[in-house]
Amino acid sequence: MDCYGLFYSVSPSPVKLRFIFVIWLFSSLAAGQPQVIGSLQPIRAAPGDDIILACHVEPPIDVSGLTVEWSRPDLKPDPKDRLSRVDYVHLYRDRREVTDIKISSYVGRTLLSTAGLGKGDISLNITNVTLEDEGKFRCFIPKLEGQKKFAIVILVVEQNSPTTETPLQPRNLQTPDPKEETADKGVSSRSNAIPVIVFSCLLGILFIGFSVYLGRKHFRKPEVPNMI
């Protein structure tokens, strides 16, 4: 059996091909869903510095109506707590900060930019950094419509350490005009969604055409030679 015949002998049926295409299509659409992305490099600071733990949603969407949690995954719960609860570095819920379950050492030292939340920026501002702040921080949006709902940001605190510049800082601390914010949000959402939709449709058309060709080629009746 030649390679051409071997390919058709192991090729899936048109029904299986359509099933695979449906799974592939849903995977392609899921790829365009929002996801939480944190700083790829550790944030370095010296004691007393004011820093920003960079974290945002990509593509940018308005998350001001969602819950945003900043926590310390490397901290263990209080052994005296029967529920093994861990307090938050910063908890944003119902469009305001919740301080009832906030780690006491972070009271009055953390801030989320309200303007930034409207553009998917959930970066956390921390003032007067201490050596005890060093470690891992987790930014988490529980009800985000995407598969990647959290990211880990690492903070390194050293004496005489230069503060790491974060690319999100200039955009976050400026309060945009509401009209401009709405326009930017709409343009950004469309510009991120259009390429994904177009690419998925083109690949879908090619995949369907190829599956139909395989089906016809596989089930085509052999030609009967003319008998003279």
Quick summary of this structure?
The protein is of the alpha+beta class. The chain contains 5 helices and 11 strands, in the order ααββββββββαβββαα. It has a 6-stranded mixed β-sheet with strand order 2-11-10-5-6-7, with no helix packed on it. A 3-stranded antiparallel β-sheet has the order 3-9-8.
Give an overview of the whole structure:
It is a single chain. With 228 residues, this protein is α+β, with helices and mostly antiparallel strands. 33% of the residues lie in helices and 19% in strands. Strand 6 (90-93) and strand 7 form a beta hairpin. Helix 2 runs antiparallel to helix 5. The longest helix has 42 residues, at 178-219. The relative contact order is 0.21.
Topology:
Layout: H1 3-10, H2 14-31, E1 35-38, E2 43-45, E3 51-53, E4 55-58, E5 68-71, E6 90-93, E7 96-97, E8 110-112, H3 114-117, E9 124-126, E10 135-140, E11 150-157, H4 169-172, H5 178-219
Parallel strand pairs: 2-11
Antiparallel strand pairs: 1-4, 3-9, 5-6, 5-10, 6-7, 8-9, 10-11
**Distance between the ends:** 30 Å
The largest pleated sheet is described as: 6 strands, mixed
Say how many strands there are.
11
Query: Could you tell me the strand content as a percent range?
Result: 15-25%
Determine the number of helices (DSSP H or I, runs of at least 4 residues): 5
Which percent range fits the helix content?
Answer: 25-40%
Order of helices and strands: HHEEEEEEEEHEEEHH
Poorly predicted tracts of residues: 167-193
Q: What multimeric state do the chains show?
A: single chain
Query: What is the averaged pLDDT score?
Result: 75
Name the overall outline.
Answer: elongated
Q: Roughly how many Å is the radius of gyration?
A: 26 Å
Question: What is the structural class?
Answer: alpha+beta
Strand order of the largest sheet: 2-11-10-5-6-7
